[in-house]
Amino acid sequence: MQSSSKKKSRFDISKYVVYIIFVLCIAIFGIWLGDSFFSVTNLLNVVRQSGAIAVMAIGMVFIIGLGHIDLSISSVVAVSALLIGVILRSTGNIFLAMLAALGFGALVGLCNGLCVTRLHMPAFLTTLGVQSILTGIAMWMTGTKAVPITNDTFLYWFGSGQVGGVIPILLFWAVAAMIIGHIVLSYTSYGRRVLASGGNVTAARYAGVNVKRVTVTAFMMQGILAALAGALYAGRTQAARWDFGEGVEMNVIAAVVLGGTAMSGGTGSAIGAVVGSVLIMMINNGLVIGRLGVAQQTLMQGVIIIIAVALSELGKKRRE
To answer: Name one GO cellular component term (predicted).
Structure first.
């Protein structure tokens, strides 16, 4: 009886809440909106909107799994997209454009990681400051003007392409990131070190984990994935803008926490993060179809974040 009660007390609802809410939302929107929500066109649109969010969410799983947070991703998205747009306009070289964007993302992640590990600056304030700096750079780069992107090859692979003529290429990027993230987090020594460091940093150090290196690597990976998301934004909209990704960090964090990653660190789920990303975009999409405005979408976003954090803390207490 005692062991049975212990098993019950260890049940962590935060690991499953994203799937429960997902099913409930499908049922609610199905009853409320009917065929306008369940049409193939609309469902594919939800997938397209989720692609970039899901890619960033994979990186955020590692950051939050370490007990940190990265608010700079929105500005990395914007500057990376502008770099791609400017280089494609000047040279037409996709490889050079992507190399510059991904390199920029890695550099930002390196700076964030070093500030957190070497200077012992709080990740929240560090990345908030970096976000402001990069937003200013993005506005300065083109004078807040959009940069059109007309390279058909780039637009296919990072925006409008369809696998088999049906499945959006953006889903391919999200699934690829999810698979790699899941393997790294669940089946590699690096993934175990991330969760060990997030769960108990002192114990991880005594166990021989180089926590500083693990943390810097996670921030660099997040920067690279945010830069890739910038390419997906640019490909989907056929342009680059300084305000790409504005406020997206809240959606990404909500998706990750809903997916079962505790804000306090020590846990993480790449699969849950992607499901959470689709859920967030599905809710926004349903509210738009239901003719509810930005105010209602913003309100729901706040409610979702509060629910996610509350369930995360509930799960933490049950595990303890």
So the answer is: plasma membrane
Work out the pLDDT band at 296, boundaries 50, 70, 90. confident
Phi-psi region of 69 (alpha: psi -120 to 50; beta: other; left: phi over 0): beta
Q: Which amino acid is at 94?
A: I
Helices (H), 92-244: 94-117, 123-142, 152-155, 169-187, 189-199, 201-206, 211-237
Instruction: From 143, 117, 311, select the one nearest 215 (Cα to Cα).
Output: 117
- By the 10 Å C-beta count (0-12 exposed, 13-18 middle, 19+ buried), 19 is classed as middle
Contacts of 284 (CB under 8 A, 6+ apart): 49, 297, 300, 301
Residue 1 has pLDDT above 50, yes or no: no
Domain 16-313 class, CATH top level: mainly alpha
What residue spans define the domains of the chain? 16-313
Distance, in Å, from the CA atom of 11 to the CA atom of 315, rounded to the nearest integer, reads: 8
Maximum Cα–Cα distance across the chain: 71
Q: What is the pLDDT of residue 315?
A: 66
Q: Which residues of 258-273 are buried (b: 16+ CB within 10 A; e: fewer)?
A: bbbbbbebbbbbbbbb
Measured N-to-C along each axis, helices 94-117 and 73-91 cross at an angle, to the nearest 10 degrees, of: 150
Cα–Cα distance measured from residue 305 to residue 253, given in angstroms and rounded to the nearest whole number:
8
> How many other β-carbons are positioned within 10 Å of the β-carbon of residue 3?
7
| Residue 318 to residues 5, 69, 168, Cα–Cα distance (Å) | 12, 23, 40
The candidate with the shortest Cα–Cα distance to 274, out of 33, 36, 53, is 53
And the tokens for 194?
Answer: 């991330």
**How long, in residues, is the chain?**
320
Average of pLDDT values for 30-52?
A: 89
User: CA 168 to CA 240: how far, in whole Å?
Assistant: 20
